[in-house]
Amino acid sequence: MGPCSNKGRGGPVKVKDVGEWEVINRIWGVLARDEEEIMGFNDDVVAKRVGRGWVLVAHTNALVESTDVLPGMSPHSIGFKSVVMNVSDFASKGVRPLGMLFALGVPKEVDVEYVEEIARGWRDASLKYGLYIWGGDVSEAGELTLCGTIIGLAKEGVLMKRRGAREGDVVACIGEFGLTSVAYLMLLKGLKAPDRMVERRALRAVYYPRAYLEEGLRLSRLGVVTSSMDSSDGLAWTLHTLCSLNGVGMRIKSVPIPIEVRRYAEKYGLDPYELALYGGEEYALVFTLRRDDLDRLPKSLAKRVHIMGVVTSDKKLRLEVDGSERKIEARGWEHFKSST
User: Fold this and answer.
1) What CATH code is assigned to 37-156?
2) Which CATH superfamily does the domain covering 170-327 fall into?
3) For 175, which DSSP code?
4) What's the mean pLDDT in 30-44?
5) What is the C-alpha radius of gyration for the chain, rounded to an integer number of angstroms?
């Protein structure tokens, strides 16, 4: 039977029918679990103890041309972004990366200069975040595919996991939301920006995103974070994941939305909170911490932290702004069935 065979009554269940997370659950149902892996299922990285309190940490991410490369992306930005998307997961765990390996799939008709520009993007991003590209593999492929594996070392006691949030914790973030949604509408729907500043900031957000590595490392050293992940799949999806894994709810009263997002929303009669909640690829850090620990944040770090709300016990996720309350839906970027 092939991957698209019609086995079974009514034909097979397609991955587009169930989405990325159900596919992941099905795969985990087949694989044997490593009982010595300390992060557990559905965290941002995997980690193994290597002795004297140290853990080896790894993560992998793929960037595929047909689903991830937006119109106007240069090969340099493709290479750069493929590093950032991996570094961001390490940032959310408080792990300093050592290096990366890349498996690069390239159609044989692609210009060599194009590949060299991807490598220059790798180089510039690795220099920015203090790691090395160690090597990897190159093979012929039907479309451009970059699969990066990032490796690092950390003290086990400072790892920030997705699990640990409790009622009364503060919900916070470092980074802003909505610019990538604006860029998607510009590039994929043709809804032009109202001015050059909006266009520049939105395109920068998707072509050359930022990973908040140093901020994540500082938070981990302080030991104040109770749960953490990055927002690469969108703010709403991130909040739902943290709530689900911790058996809690959240009441969100403030979302950091850039003025450029609000201007764009006003031009087209859009809801800026919809743009902020249901985008993706912002790579902001979303985390929880004890309210009493807010005073432990150094001023230089505290000014970067935006307090969004509070963890609740009722398992409801809601947004309370402008005198009204609304449910935050469980949607955002999901492979095979994304709403973006």
Assistant:
1) 3.30.1330.10
2) PurM-like C-terminal domain (3.90.650.10)
3) S
4) 92
5) 20
179: left (phi over 0), alpha (psi -120 to 50) or beta: alpha
SS3 46: strand
How many Cβ atoms sit within 10 Å of the Cβ of residue 215? 18
Q: What is the pLDDT of residues 73-96, one digit of tens each?
A: 999 999 999 999 999 999 999 999
Please compute the mean of the pLDDT values over residues 184-196 and round it to a whole number: 98
pLDDT band at 8 (very low <50, low <70, confident <90, very high): very low
What does the alpha-carbon distance between residue 316 and residue 156 come to, in Å, rounded to a whole number?
Answer: 32
Q: How far apart are CA 48 and CA 37, in angstroms?
A: 5
Pairing state between β 170-174 and 225-230: unpaired
Q: Which contiguous run of DSSP H or E holds residue 240?
A: helix 235-246
Banded model confidence at residue 21, pLDDT cuts 50, 70, 90: confident
Q: How far apart are CA 294 and CA 220, in angstroms?
A: 14
Distance CA(197)–CA(185), nearest Å, equals 16
Is pLDDT above 50 for 213?
Answer: yes
Q: Which of 336, 327, 313, 243 is nearest to 278 (CA)?
A: 327
Output the pTM of the full model: 0.93
3-state SS, 70-93, equals CCCCCHHHHHHHHHHHHHHHHHHH
Residue with tokens 């790894």: 58
- Structure tokens, 112: 């060599």
Domains of the chain by residue range: 37-156, 170-327
Distance CA 145, CA 148 (A): 10
